[in-house]
Amino acid sequence: MPTPADKLWRNARLATMTGDRLGVIEHGAVAATGGAISYVGPDAGAPDAAEIIDCDGRWITPGLIDCHTHLVHAGTRAKEFEARLNGATYEEIARAGGGILATVTATCAASEEELIASALPRLDQLIGEGVTTVEIKSGYGLTLDDELKMLRAARSLGKVRNVRIRTSLLAAHAVPPEYKGDPDGYIDLVCNEIIPAAVGLADAVDAFCEGIGFTPEQTDHVLAAAVAHGLPVKLHAEQLSNQHGAALAARHGALSADHLEHLDRAGIAAMAASGTVATLLPGAFYFTREARRPPVQALRDAGVPIAIATDCNPGTSPMASILLAMNMGATFFRLTVAECLRGVTVNAARALGIDGGTLQPGKPADLAIWDISDPAELVYRIAANPLHARVFAGQ
Prior knowledge:
This protein is an alpha/beta fold. The protein has helices spanning 78-85, 90-95, 100-109, 112-127, 144-160, 183-198, 216-228, 245-251, 265-274, 282-287, 296-302, 322-333, 337-343, 346-352, 377-380; strands at residues 5-15, 24-33, 36-42, 49-54, 59-62, 64-66, 131-137, 164-172, 204-209, 234-237, 256-259, 277-280, 306-308, 367-370, 387-391. The chain has an eight-stranded parallel β-sheet with strand order 6-7-8-9-10-11-12-13, with helices on both faces. Strands 1, 2, 3, 4, 5, 14 and 15 form a seven-stranded mixed β-sheet that branches. The longest helix has 17 residues, at 144-160.
């Protein structure tokens, strides 16, 4: 007789995300003990439990994971959106002092408490769609104190809501105005002062390798410094041009390379060899009216895992809907339903270097319970939220 569990969700249909597709179990059950999954399988073989929840035939997936966000920031960039509608490009706005630097000004002026308060509505929207883990980047501080302020604010969100927060230091996001003539000097600051100070607050280090960001050589210094301090790395790569950032990230064993519209075959091969996840961000693709799509078929052919995220940020993806991100991934990038769902569960967990994203014994008991007849509905519907219940760490 199995050991009794704390909770049992029975009479359910399970999408476990194991194997290479959805890992469906009809007439299934999930049990949790001490915040971890203790049983996944047929309803008939489930253990007894102190509390039993009848799911009435609903679908259960792992709790969803948003593995790339800039959730903590101050201010809005609605006027830049209007300027783009009138013909200005993202690069033109950035070079004129707008873009990332506009958000930097607002974020540096905000207190830690104000940053937490402004981020909560965005976080609550994600939570309301079944998200149980959120990655949050810094990158709108660009000074030691303000980058650490952002990381502290991100960590604090996990104390005021039942959600798992992973933080990424993105100090190499833009060149601050005071370093406009000396970007290498700023990279020295990032490598020698900000990264060491962020150890313990950051779970990973990220950078923006791009013509309007940092060169591959500068990015290489940042990633090497992160690895030297025991921090895994990620990279904004090949969004606007091919800087060969994905291959650079792969050489440092990056967890993920993100955006990837201009990714080439050499970058794909490097990612496949290193196990680096391709995180696609269809919200930014849509919002900036990008025309070039990531090379999805080549990624498939090479066996590179694909994740999907909202890229929630004030300038290029002001979207806090993981469900819409899946729909966009299917519509714009022609991802399959299984690829979309795995992209916000098991592959998103891999992009963060965490143990989760599947329904398996020993994994965190993070569940999303849905009022749907088929998992395809989670990708198919627009502006609809069929979440019935969300479970975080068994609660």
